[in-house]
Each structure stands twice: as structure tokens, then as C-alpha cells.
Design brief:
- The structure holds two protein chains of two kinds.
- Chain A is built from five helices and four strands; from the N terminus they run H-H-E-H-E-H-E-H-E.
- Chain A is an alpha+beta fold.
- Chain A has a domain at 60-179: OmpA-like domain (60s Ribosomal Protein L30, Chain: A).
- In chain A, strands 1-4-2-3 form a four-stranded mixed sheet.
- In chain B, helix 1 packs across helix 3.
- Helix content of chain B is 9%, strand content 41%.
- Chain B is mainly beta.
- Chain B has two domains: 7-160, TolB, N-terminal domain (Rossmann fold, 3-Layer(aba) Sandwich), CATH 3.40.50; 169-432, Neuraminidase.
- The chains are: A alpha+beta, B mainly beta.
- Chains A and B meet through helix 4 and strand 3 of A and strand 15 and strand 27 of B.
């Protein structure tokens, strides 16, 4: 049910081998199989420069890269609205640019609502929001064949409160990568 | 499961004019005091569901609970008031009027050689000593609760002049887990919460189950395979089958009164419209053509009209159209928005959800939109469903805040007698069955 569960496993990092690491001679070859292991037999102590940092970055083309590059996978809407506002346009625009770089990627846009609507109406409103986000991506050149939509109405909030802050977080469209990411 | 009336016990000659009468429109102002003592067993016999004496006590308990739940009757304490078998047909009325009862419900349970039981059900005006009704109900011993509900329906019908509703069932969505990861399962139970059974395992998100008129088929919405659409469920076999649109979301299904048609909505590129599907041929007919969202359709009991909600004029409002989609007109004009309309089985009223800022409430209005009355008041009361006789409305109530606590409630058409319906877990989306045969 949750596409995103899989993405956790896909988040990989490139360890930046920075300037702080010194070139070393290769350690001696390991002893042949079956040979007894000698403690510290090669005489090479484990060493390194502990003062630097090891940075990370997302693998280009990965789900994490998509979110970082786009400024998020989620755009928000006003109450009972499916209008893509300027903030949402900026995020969706970057999503579209990223999707242009990785044409094998397919996405599903999930539409969600806050809890202040009846069940059936909110399913329809979630479909409106997902479709609005999809249509914006398509207008930026992403093939509609790569974009599916699904509405969860008010069934899958991310914030569990019953206040303006929670409502605002729950009125959303989330672009979920379903295949083709690295 | 049929519970035929026992012809031998069916006396057509009920008294012409009962002295007592329950006014169903007066709410709970003065519920009628009734005595429902344990039904005596002339010859205590074993059945598959216990002895007939034990069943006689249990049947009386169910009858008393049914009548009390209507808010129209008040069972008096009959503890210690023994009933001899001969008292069933010749009651000593002074004993019951002495307890304050104005009506006496009594009867007996006998075991047949075929494994069935017969529940004899007798109702008397305890003050005038007139007999009001008597009938026998035959069923399997395991099915004794249904015979008790039939007895309660007989009493309700005789004293109110309205058809009863106690021998009926509820299908609903059982909920558990945190608000952000709710697990939902279809569940079915008797109207009084007995014989509770889960129908699905919670793997797929399921919503809005509704009974077919045959009470054996359900239609509901499922997110199975991440394809939200309409499904059918057959209660006996557990068979599940997807119907309707294969590419776009379909939602809000409901059967026509004759069961031949499903009416529901399909969402396509942000627009949601109402369609109907002929169950036999699977032919789909489009009924609305935008603009905006049209959903939550419900047939009138004669099948000639459909009430639905649409935001074509701005916010959500209730509309009525002919069953072929013609003559669509808005009927709700009160303050705020209006959604989830459901036509009463009597045809005279439409129940719906009245939305004002910060509140959802259950309300009723006439099919022309006049006479609106709001029946409940809470953070979110939503999704009304009618009792088979059109007198009681069940709905679900969601609490504000992180718990997301949601449960079932019922309220009398008068706005009185609001009750919580007990369920094992949280509960939403109730749908009442027709009266069982």
C-alpha cells in the first residue's frame, strides 16, 4: 500500500573521500585461506585523520535525490481548493525538471484532504488535487503516461491533530516514485 | 433464513381498538412501561442452544432490550415475578399493573422434534386486559435471537402502528490503529450488536459498505491493488468481485431498491460524476456531466429518483434527479454545506450531513428541501443510514484530536433517544439492512 516504504531501503550515500584522507601503500595481501590468522600480522596499524568530516549526498537519480532537488515530494493546498499556488508551482517545476533528466522514472501522485469534509466528497477532492498536480507536471513536459494518480481522501493524514496546522499539512499532493529510480 | 409465522398461532381476530397506543412522534417524553418477564417453559427441553427454560429467559431479555432501545418503551423490573405456563394465555394482570406496567409481553419457547424451536409471542394491554397480538416464530435453536427480534417487532408494530426494525443487521467499517495509519475492516452484526463478524482482514483500505435488498450482497469501496474502486461481497460465500471502471477511481456505491442497479461515482482527471451499472449486464450509463464533483447518490424507495450531492454551484449541496439523469435540481438551501444524502425507506424524508464551519451534524429534510431539522450536535457526525422503517437514523461520530476516536450512534427521527452503538473496535460508515425475511 505504501510506495514510500520501499524508498527507505533505496537511500544510499556516496562517502566523500575528501582531502583529509592520506594515500597509503596497499596493505599486504590477506593470508591464504586456511592459514592461521595472526593478530596484527601485517604490522600496519589502523589509522586515519579523525579531524575531518565525511559528507554524504544522494545518489543522482534516487528517490532521495528527487526530494532534495525538488524541494520535497509534497505540495500543499488551501481549504477545499485544488489550485496549484506559486509555492507548489516552484516545487512541481523542479520535480518536472528532475523527471526530464530521468525519463525511466514513473510516478504516482497521491491526493489527500484534511478531515473537514465528508468521506465521499473528500475522495473526489483528493482526486482533484492529484489531477491538478499531474496536469501541472504534464504542462512542464512530463509525459502523462509516466504519471498515475490516486486519491486517499481524508483516509491517510500525515498530521493527526484537529487544528489548522494539521489540516494544512494534510491538504496535499505527494509525488511518489514507483519505478525507474536508482 | 425464513421464520414463517405459525399458522396455528396466527389469530387474525386481534382486538379492534387497542386501549394503549404509543405515539412515535412524542420522543422519549413518556415511554410506555412494559413487563417482559422470562418466557416460561411448559416442558423444559434441551435444544442446540440450551434448554427451552434458559432460552425463554434470554428471549425475554432480547425483547425487553429491543423495546427499550427504541426509547418508546420502558421495561419494568420483573425480577421475582414468576410466570406459570398457564399464565401465558391467561395472565394475572394485577401482578403486572402492580409493577407499574401498562403492557405485558409474554410467551413460551418449545422444542420441536426437527431441532427447530417455536417462540410464542403474546402481547396484552395489562390495564384493559385485552390481548393485542399473538404470533409464533419457528427457527433453528441457534437462531433464537432472530425469533426474539421478530417478537419485539410484532409488539412495536402493534403498539405504534409502524413496521418494526429490530430483526435487521448493520454492516460497517471497523477501525483500529493510529489516525495516520488506520486499519479498516468490513464487519457485520445484528442491529443490537450481537453476532458480530469481521468480513475482511484489514489488508486493504475499505470504505462505505451498503446492503443489497437481498441482505446477502454488499457493495463497498476497496483500495485493493492500489486501485480504488467498487466491489461486491457475498456474505454467505465470502466471494469478492470488483465491478465497474478499471482505470479511474470509482466510489460511493449504493444499490437500487430492486437490487438490479448500482449507482456510484467515477473520478476522471479531477471531475467526479455519477454513473449507474446494470448488475446483470454490467452496462454502464452516465447520469451527470459536471461541472465539478457529483457523488454520494441514493435512490428513492420507488426507484424513480436519485438524490446526490454536488459542488457544481460552489460548495457541496444536495440535488435530486430522475433515475435516468434528467431534471437535476438543487434542493438544499440552508446555512452551510450539505452532503451524503440518503433517501428514507418511507420516501418522505432525506437524511444528510449538514456542514457548518467546525461541525458536521445529521439532519433531515423533505424531498423538496423543505422542513429541515438538525438532529445531532458534535464535532463530526456524518454518514446517516435509515432503519428499515424510516424511524431511526444511525451515523458515525468522529472525535476531534489525535485519537481520531470514531463510533456509531443512533437517533430517533424526533431528535430524541440518541444512543451509542457498542462495537468491539472503533466504527464508521454504518449501513442498515432491510428488515430480514
Amino acid at each position: 500500500m505504501q510506495h514510500r516504504a520501499a524508498t527507505v531501503a533505496m537511500i544510499a550515500v556516496l562517502v566523500g573521500l575528501g582531502a583529509c584522507a592520506k594515500k597509503k601503500a596497499l596493505p599486504p595481501a590477506p593470508p591464504p585461506a586456511g592459514a592461521p590468522i595472526q593478530p596484527n600480522s601485517g604490522g600496519v596499524p589502523i589509522q586515519g585523520d579523525s579531524t575531518g568530516t565525511v559528507g554524504t549526498r544522494s545518489i543522482p537519480g534516487s528517490v532521495a535525490d528527487f526530494k532534495e532537488t525538488s524541494g520535497g515530494d509534497t505540495v500543499l493546498f488551501a481549504y477545499d481548493s485544488y489550485e496549484v499556488d506559486d509555492t507548489a508551482k516552484a516545487i512541481l517545476g523542479k520535480q518536472a525538471e528532475w523527471l526530464a533528466r530521468y525519463p525511466a522514472v514513473k510516478v504516482t501522485v497521491e491526493g489527500h484532504t484534511d478531515e473537514r469534509g465528508t468521506r465521499e466528497y473528500n475522495l473526489a477532492l483528493g482526486d482533484r488535487r492529484a489531477s491538478a498536480a499531474k496536469n501541472f507536471l504534464a504542462a512542464q513536459g512530463v509525459s502523462v503516461a509516466r504519471i498515475a494518480t490516486i486519491s486517499y481522501g481524508k483516509e491517510r493524514p500525515v498530521a493527526d491533530g484537529s487544528d489548522e496546522s494539521a489540516y494544512a499539512q494534510n491538504r496535499r499532493a505527494v509525488t511518489v516514485i514507483v519505478s525507474g529510480a536508482r | 433464513m425464513r421464520i414463517p409465522a405459525l399458522a396455528a398461532l396466527l389469530l387474525a381476530a386481534a382486538p379492534a381498538a387497542a386501549v394503549i397506543r404509543v405515539d412515535i412522534n412524542s420522543g422519549t417524553a413518556s415511554p410506555l412501561p412494559v413487563a417482559v418477564p422470562a418466557f416460561p417453559a411448559a416442558a423444559d427441553a434441551a435444544t442446540a442452544a440450551g434448554t427451552t427454560a434458559a432460552l425463554g429467559s434470554q428471549v425475554a431479555g432480547v425483547v425487553a432490550a429491543d423495546l427499550a432501545s427504541s426509547g418508546l418503551f420502558r421495561p419494568v423490573d420483573t425480577a421475582g415475578a414468576a410466570v406459570a405456563p398457564a399464565d401465558v394465555t391467561a395472565p394475572r394482570f394485577a401482578a403486572w399493573t402492580g409493577l407499574g406496567a401498562q403492557a405485558l409481553i409474554t410467551g413460551n419457547v418449545t422444542a420441536g422434534a426437527d431441532g427447530n424451536i417455536t417462540v410464542g409471542c403474546y402481547a396484552y394491554d395489562a390495564v384493559s386486559t385485552e390481548e393485542l397480538a399473538r404470533q409464533g416464530f419457528v427457527t433453528t435453536a441457534a437462531n433464537w435471537r432472530r425469533a426474539a427480534h421478530k417478537c419485539a417487532d410484532l409488539v412495536y408494530s402493534r403498539l405504534t402502528g409502524e413496521t418494526g426494525y429490530f430483526d435487521s443487521r448493520i454492516v460497517y467499517v471497523s477501525e483500529t490503529g493510529p489516525k495516520t495509519r488506520r486499519i479498516k475492516r468490513l464487519a457485520v452484526m445484528d442491529q443490537d450488536g450481537a453476532n458480530h463478524r469481521f468480513l475482511t482482514n484489514g489488508q486493504n483500505l475499505v470504505l462505505t459498505p451498503r446492503f443489497a435488498p437481498n441482505q446477502q450482497t454488499l457493495t463497498y469501496m476497496s483500495f485493493a491493488d492500489n486501485r480504488p474502486r467498487i466491489w461486491l461481497y457475498t456474505i454467505g460465500s465470502g466471494r469478492q468481485e470488483a465491478v465497474g471502471d478499471t482505470t479511474n477511481m470509482s466510489s460511493a456505491p449504493r444499490f437500487s431498491p430492486d437490487g438490479s442497479t448500482l449507482v456510484y461515482s467515477i473520478s476522471q482527471n479531477g471531475t467526479t460524476d455519477i454513473y449507474k451499472l446494470d448488475v446483470a449486464s454490467r452496462t454502464v450509463t452516465r447520469l451527470t456531466r459536471g461541472p465539478g464533483i457529483s457523488t454520494a447518490p441514493s435512490y428513492s424507495p420507488d426507484g424513480s429518483k436519485i438524490v446526490f450531492e454536488s459542488d457544481r454551484g460552489g460548495g457541496q449541496q444536495v440535488y435530486v434527479m430522475n433515475a435516468d439523469g434528467s431534471d437535476q435540481r438543487r434542493i438544499s438551501f440552508g446555512e452551510g454545506r450539505a452532503g451524503t444524502p440518503v433517501w428514507s425507506p418511507r420516501g418522505d424524508l432525506i437524511a444528510f450531513t449538514r456542514l457548518t464551519p467546525g461541525k458536521f451534524r445529521i439532519a433531515v429534510m423533505r424531498p423538496d428541501g423543505s422542513g429541515e431539522r438538525v438532529l445531532t450536535n458534535a464535532y463530526q457526525d456524518e454518514g446517516p443510514t435509515w432503519s428499515p422503517n424510516g424511524r431511526v437514523i444511525m451515523f458515525f461520530r468522529t472525535a476531534a484530536g489525535r485519537s481520531g476516536r470514531v463510533d456509531l450512534h443512533s437517533v430517533d427521527l424526533s431528535g430524541a433517544n440518541e444512543r451509542t452503538i457498542k462495537t468491539p473496535l472503533d466504527a464508521s460508515d454504518p449501513a442498515w439492512s432491510p428488515l430480514l425475511p
